[in-house]
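Record type: monomer structure entry
Structure origin: computed from sequence
Chain ID: A
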Amino acid sequence: MITQNSGLRRHGIFNYSIPALAAKLADGRNVLTCPSAGVCANVCYARTGTYQFPQVKAKHARNLARYLDDPRQWRHDLVTELAAPKYRNGKLRVHDSGDYFSDDYVTDWMTVARAVPDVLVYSYTKEISRFKRLVEPDPPENFAWVYSYGGKEDHLINPATDRMADVFPSEEAITAAGWHTNAGSDLDAVLGPSPVGMAQNRIPHLRKAIGQRTFREWQATERTGTASAALNHPQP
């Protein structure tokens, strides 16, 4: 179930993926895998490029189906896989594609992390309220996370206390904002100083859609627009 994509391999980081945003499984089940996605859904890198290769999409769907069909077996299989010598003192990024789509799924990942204490397990997530309820009170010692802007729950991020990340138009924009970059290693998002900035990907049509905004700015505009629309068109 664990792989290495090209961007993480050079830093010795492994990754676990499920379909980005949503999936329709072979048996017809429809699953929303990123329930708190906001503007990020419009420009998701995990819905482009190599992520769209049939064999890649099939593997991500299998990972999701294995969990949904038998969570207990899924936990056992992951812990067994992570016990292999190559993962000892290793790093695993959970979800370079997808997010923590249910309470049980979060809890099961925390169980897996506790069972492999010599592996650093980490994630970016937009599931802010879920993490504040289920993870923050008692996180595994080897689990690290960063709240990522661009989702429906951006307003729940506390800049004074939370580790946070945002997408910027460029490295220069990150520096100008006084944020720290993760350009050296993806691990800097969870191990380096916060807040963390990430430069936009290089896919032309996605860069055009984002423009010169950060995800945080873009999402705030969407949230303000939604609130204004509600005020102008109240429910009967």
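Annotation 1: Residues 15 and 93 are 5 Å apart (CA to CA).
Annotation 2: The chain has one domain: 2-225.
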